[in-house]
Specification:
This protein has a six-stranded mixed beta sheet, sandwiched between helices. The chain has a two-stranded antiparallel sheet with strand order 2-6. The chain has four helices and eight strands, in the order αβββαββαβαββ. A hairpin with a 2-residue loop joins strand 4 and strand 5. The protein is an alpha/beta fold.
């Protein structure tokens, strides 16, 4: 065996060991969404065809492909409602635990205020969505599942108050 072969074998063993280490680490799922409003302050909600309850434009972060939470919010918005718009500041991060799945971290960004032309240009992704509507902030609870309601209400509170990003655990303030 030459010195080069020994170095290659050592490098290969280290890479295999590192890959095994990474594979042994806990798994976390991640999603990202955008909170859009109209000029009256109503919140844009989407009606998915694959589960009960409404949602914000958003979805899974394709982290295996190097996608960031912000990029995912923009991509999902473009895919789901046909609008490719810049995404604003981070409003909420929510760490949630549930039986039967790994922990899930959710990011909610400010999507901004959509004007009449943008609202008229919304084209739903037919494979996943049935409809969309604008809902008064006080009425989101009638549309959203409980696990999402608190996240959206907190994102709206952050927007209205100008407060910094909210950190939630299972939809509740982490520092309560």
């Amino acid at each position: 065996m030459t010195t080069t072969d020994s170095t290659t074998d050592s490098t290969s063993a280290a890479a295999d060991s590192y890959a095994a280490y990474i594979a042994s680490l806990p798994r976390v799922l991640a999603g990202s969404a955008a909170l859009f409003r109209d000029a009256s302050g109503r919140i844009l909600l989407l009606e998915p065809n694959y589960r009960e309850g409404w949602a914000l434009p958003g979805g899974t972060i394709e982290s295996d492909e190097g996608e960031t939470p912000r990029a995912a919010a923009r991509r999902e918005t473009a895919e789901e409602i046909g609008l490719d718009v810049p995404i604003g500041r981070l409003l909420v991060v929510d760490w949630s635990l549930d039986v039967g799945r790994p922990p899930f971290v959710s990011y909610v960004y400010d999507g901004g205020v959509l004007d009449e032309a943008q609202l008229a240009a919304i084209e739903l992704q037919e494979a996943e969505l049935l409809s969309w509507k604008l809902v008064e902030p006080a009425e989101v609870g009638a549309y959203l599942p409980a696990w999402l309601q608190s996240r959206v209400e907190e994102a709206h509170r952050v927007l209205e108050s100008g407060a910094g990003t909210a950190e939630l655990e299972n939809g509740r303030p982490a520092l309560a």
